[in-house]
Amino acid sequence: MADIGLITIAGSPLEVLIPVWFYIFSGLAYFASAAVSLAVSYYSFRLYRTSKSKKFAMLSVVFAVLGVAYLALTLSSVYTYYYQSYFREELGISLNVFNRQAFNFYYVTSLLSYVLLFVTYFPKNTGKRFHLLYVPLWFSSLTDFHIASLFLLAFVVARAAHNFYKFKSTNTFLVLAAFALMAVFHVAILLLPFDLTYYLLSHALLAAGFVSLLIMLIRVNRIGRR
Amino acid sequence: MAEDNFTVKYEKGKVERRTKLTIFVDILRVLQRNNGTAKPTHILYGANLSHKRMKQYLQELQSNGFIEQKNERGKTVYRITDKGQKFLMEAKKIKQFSEAFGIEL
Question: Choosing among B6, B97, B98, which should be mutated to test the A contact, i.e. which has the most A CBs within 10 A?
């Protein structure tokens, strides 16, 4: 059992035995997500400076916060891997204490970024009926981090799908795919107690989502270089 | 020619108000289409502006360094600068990015 670590699943009260090498995989997925998030944030900020559009500023904050959230998880994964593999006693900080703090930070920052994204996508001039969406959001936030995230992302995915239907372009599809994969990541995490392979699947989906965003970013940035 | 939809957005028969960025792009496009130089009258019609608003925007574009005023055969003309060309490129990126995320400017 030397290469197996008991770990609390991100945002869930469940604890599952996960092989230590999984942490390298999840660490890479989290790092890729953080890097792409920060790149999108920087790009949005650059466009905000030119356009002075508040929506770009909001998008920049959303992805900056999300990037920091995934950086915390990257650190947690790397720390867990080294703790379980080599150091154990020598590192000084208990694995549980470190992980709990890293994950708590992730829950707060990630949820904050999703709420901001939700607000960014909230339709203008729709009257009060859309404000009813805040009611299930409040209830879901009381139950589980992943369920609350799923609720917020489901709304964003619906808006992105509407946008894709409107423009039917590759870039709109890439953004839709990114948000949809981020939502499926949370579903796969919720399914983790049923099968451990969902851990790998969820992180692969998360990384795929951010790769989709990266492709969109490259495509947009290539304009003018053709 | 999807990029040309920047100018005026039609949605269900109604014309949306143009943002300052969109008007800047429209003016710079008029100059670009005329080999980089255009008379105020061309800009007025090409960018669909009133004389008062055109003067105001041309001044802003000049102070930002996107265009320069010149005299050709005793007549005032405006020329797009390199900075203006770069701004047009940036505006294309803004449009593509905002469209990708479904964000209205």
Answer: B97
Average pLDDT across chain B, whole number: 82
Nearest to B94 by CA among A53, A9, A91, A70: A53
Residues B12-66: tens digit of each pLDDT: 455 567 788 889 999 999 999 888 888 989 999 988 888 898 999 999 999 989 9
Q: What is the DSSP string of chain A?
A: -TTEEEEEPTTSS-EEEEETTHHHHHHHHHHHHHHHHHHHHHHHHHHHHHH--HHHHHHHHHHHHHHHHHHHHHHHHHHHHHIIIIITTTT-S-HHHHHHHHHHHHHHHHHHHHHHHHHHHSPTT-TTGGGGGHHHHHHHHHH-HHHHHHHHHHHHHHHHHHHHHHH--HHHHHHHHHHHHHHHHHHHHHTTTT-THHHHHHHHHHHHHHHHHHHHHHHHHTTTT-
Q: Which of B19, B87, B93 sits opposite A220 (nearest CB)?
A: B93
Residue of B nearest to A162 (CA): B102
Interface touch B93/A223, C-beta < 8 Å:
yes
Which residue type sits at A107?
Y
Query: Which ranges of chain A have pLDDT less than 70?
Result: 1-18, 85-95, 125-143, 224-226
Does the CB of A60 have a partner CB in chain B at under 8 Å?
Answer: no
- DSSP label at B105? -
User: Residue B99's closest chain A neighbor by CA?
Assistant: A172
**HEC readout, A164-208:** HHHHCCHHHHHHHHHHHHHHHHHHHHHCCCCCCHHHHHHHHHHHH
**ipTM above 0.95 for this complex:** no
Contact A174 B21 (CB under 8 A): no
The minimal CB distance from A51 to the residues B89, B101, B105 is found for B105
